[in-house]
Amino acid sequence: MKYVVIINPKAGSGAAAKVWPQLAASLTAAKVDYEPIFTEYSGHGVLLGEQLGQKALALEAAATSAGQVLSGPMFTILIVGGDGTVNHVLNGLHHPTHPHFQIPIAYFPAGSGNDFARSLHLPRKVDHFIQRLQQISTPTPLNVFALALQNSAAEPSQPYYLINNFGMGFDAHVVHLTEHSPWKSKLNRWHLGNLAYVINLISVLKHQQPYALDLDLGADHFHFDRAYLSTLTNIAYFGGGVPIVPAADPHIQELNLIILEKPSLPKFIWLFILMLTNGKHLNSPAVHLFRGQTLKLHIAPAQFGQMDGEDMGAHEFQLTAHNQQYPFWI
Ligand SMILES: Nc1ncnc2c1ncn2[C@@H]1O[C@H](COP(=O)(O)OP(=O)(O)OP(=O)(O)O)[C@@H](O)[C@H]1O
After folding, report:
1. Which of 83, 179, 190, 262 has its CA 20 to 30 A from that of 43?
2. Which class in CATH covers the domain with range 2-138?
3. Within 10 Å of residue 278's Cβ, how many Cβ atoms?
């Protein structure tokens, strides 16, 4: 199996760039056939995914016209970076001009949050990763979810594909402030990036307002007047290790939506403690958990949104989310 390795040198405040020489040496020692490519700017992973999709299609067409019978994928993409890099490459692979969408993705987590890897218990040490890589013989289909955002003309946009979560309100507000905070890069330099999230969490507690949310689950409709946080999640964690829906599992084709109605400050703190310790926040009357295959949501007025930890700015979101499977080489 050939690996095309995409390395985001900025992921994990430079952790990916730092680990890459060791990982490359171990791949070489294990006689793995690989070709490294570094992302060069923010969002470059989308273009790389798109180009690799085109390359796989061309290789497949050439092999088929030469009379070869293909027994598997042309190559595997190994991503070295964080959740955002996996999200970008996945979206590029699923580009509308070539909905090829079947090149397996292997992943060495080297980001800041690494929620996807944490949820799947993926190895984070180079030697464990190489051992695991050598044991894999078939791709594992995992749930990812497609999100179609409706614009004002009610036309769905090209879907986005997510590996982790899509949040609106509180969590996305924290992500937005952190992305735009002048001292984030300074804290990152001292490996204190998570402190930026904690500081902004306190600020958001003061400023986040409740909003209206309508949920359509096919036969059932729900309305909330005072939603505060609403997160669609495919995995157990969000925000770099916070177990928001402990039972969520991407091996299961099921999408989870958790809604928190605006609580008092002491109640919010209590729910947060429960979430970090035993998962009993889900028993609170202020917390609502829905599961489904297709979920339609509308929220107003405009709220911040975050997609796999990437800031989307503030919008009045009208969206449809549904499950989809993708092969991972994990
Ligand atoms: N060469 C580059 N220069 C600047 N930014 C880059 C470059 N390559 C990728 N990026 C951007 O880096 C951002 C962060 O990447 P990623 O999410 O993988 O790491 P992280 O935020 O440290 O980890 P996690 O998402 O797991 O918390 C992405 O938005 C991506 O577009």
Report:
1. 190
2. alpha beta
3. 12
ipTM value for the complex: 0.98
Residue having the nearest C-alpha atom to atom 5 of ligand 1: 42
Any atom of ligand 1 within 6 Å of the Cβ of 113: yes
CA neighbor of 297 nearest in space, from 211, 236, 239, 238: 211
Give the pTM.
0.94
Alpha helices in the chain (DSSP H): 11-29, 44-65, 83-93, 115-120, 126-135, 170-179, 184-189, 193-207, 265-277
pLDDT single digits (tens) 117-157: 999 999 999 999 999 999 999 999 999 999 999 865 555 56
Cα of 138 vs centre of ligand 1, distance in Å, is 28
Matching CATH topology for 2-138 and 144-328? Answer: no
233 lines ligand 1 (CB under 6 A): no
- Calculate how far, in angstroms, residue 58's C-alpha sits from the geometric centre of ligand 1: 29
Q: Does domain 144-328 have CATH number 2.60.200.40?
A: yes
| Residue closest by Cα to atom 9 of ligand 1 | 42
